[in-house]
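Feature request, filed as a ticket because there's no other form

It would be nice if the structure record came with a short human-readable summary line next to the tokens. Right now we just get the raw output. Example of a typical job, pasted below so the devs can see what we mean:
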Amino acid sequence: MPDPTGGSIASAAFQFFLAAVMTVHLLFLSRDLHPLMALSPLARLGRTLPAPPQAPLPSA
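Raw output as currently delivered:
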């Protein structure tokens, strides 16, 4: 049965994959690494959130 939207399964899967990649990029890779993402409200929000607690370094 053909897709009623006129697209194919392959294009739908590719769009889903692309959306997942961009979501991961926005959430994890944009923390001041991408020059354009410095202008993003998401990046500014990420910088205003408190940093996660760091484990204490073991004393040698």
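Something like this underneath would help us a lot:
The chain is about 50% helix and 0% strand.
Residues 9-29 form the longest helix (21 residues).
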